[in-house]
């Protein structure tokens, strides 16, 4: 990571006064840059998010990983998907105003992070250039927990375990 600069726990202001925590990865000696943002309820300092940030910074992008509202270093109360779209919109406004961002912002994320992008996309942020949601359902009932109408016990128990550990 010698060729990447990490700005840890950058405070991202929301409309209602709370702040979210973002870890921003930047290539050394460059700027302003096109920026890629993703959101997670699973802690921005996990290895998979660090690797993601370093990967994109080494390729000439600013990369930001944001803990969603009420998770880890972000303020507020966590209620899944309740304010994520508005918070994502506010995050893009913040990023666009930073000296390291050239105003062109894309988003990326899997599962929860993919759904955040869908919630953001319809809000029409002027700096949003593209979204790349991955591994998400458009109907969590029909395509997830009741695939084809059949109850998916293993998926349901796995999701319950994941969410209970995330909320603990």
CATH architecture of the largest domain: 3-Layer(aba) Sandwich
**Proportion of helical residues:** 25-40%
CATH superfamily of the largest domain: Alpha/Beta hydrolase fold, catalytic domain
Average predicted confidence as pLDDT: 90
Reading off the top of the CATH hierarchy, the class of the largest domain is best stated as Alpha Beta
How much β-strand is present in the residues? 25-35%
**Major pleated sheet:** 6 strands, mixed
Which class of secondary structure composition applies to the elements?
alpha/beta
How many domains in all?
A: 2
The ordered string of helix (H) and strand (E) elements is EEEHEHEHEHH
Strands of the widest sheet, in order across it, are: 1-2-4-3-5-6
Q: How many β-strand stretches? A: 6
Q: Per CATH, what is the topology of the largest domain?
A: Rossmann fold
Could you list the spans in which at least 5 consecutive residues all have pLDDT below 50? none
Coarse morphology: globular
Number of helices: 5
End-to-end Cα distance: 31 Å
Taking all Cα atoms into account, the compactness measure Rg is 16 Å
Describe the protein in words.
- There is one protein chain.
- This protein is α/β, with parallel strands linked by helices and 168 residues long.
- It has 2 domains: 4-136, Rossmann fold; 140-168, no CATH class.
- Helices cover 32% and strands 30% of the residues.
- It has helices at 47-57, 84-96, 112-121, 141-145, 153-167, and strands spanning 4-13, 19-27, 33-40, 62-67, 101-110, 128-134.
- It has a 6-stranded mixed β-sheet with strand order 1-2-4-3-5-6, with helices on both faces.
- The chain starts with a strand and ends with a helix.
- The model has no long low-confidence stretch (mean pLDDT 90).
């Amino acid at each position: 990571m010698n060729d990447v600069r990490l700005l840890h726990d950058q405070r991202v202001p929301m409309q209602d006064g709370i702040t979210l925590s973002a870890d921003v990865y930047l290539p050394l000696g460059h700027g302003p840059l096109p920026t890629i943002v993703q959101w997670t309820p699973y802690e921005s300092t996990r290895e998979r998010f660090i690797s993601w940030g370093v990967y994109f910074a080494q390729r000439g992008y600013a990369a930001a990983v944001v803990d969603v509202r009420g998770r880890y270093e972000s303020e507020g109360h966590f209620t899944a998907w309740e304010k994520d779209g508005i918070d994502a919109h506010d995050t893009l406004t913040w990023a666009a105003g930073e000296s390291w961002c050239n105003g062109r912002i894309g988003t990326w994320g899997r599962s929860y992070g993919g759904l955040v992008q869908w919630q953001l996309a319809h809000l029409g942020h002027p700096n949003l250039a593209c979204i790349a949601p991955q591994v998400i359902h458009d109907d969590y009932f029909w395509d997830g927990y009741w695939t084809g109408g059949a109850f998916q016990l293993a998926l349901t128990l796995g999701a319950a375990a994941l969410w209970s550990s995330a909320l603990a």
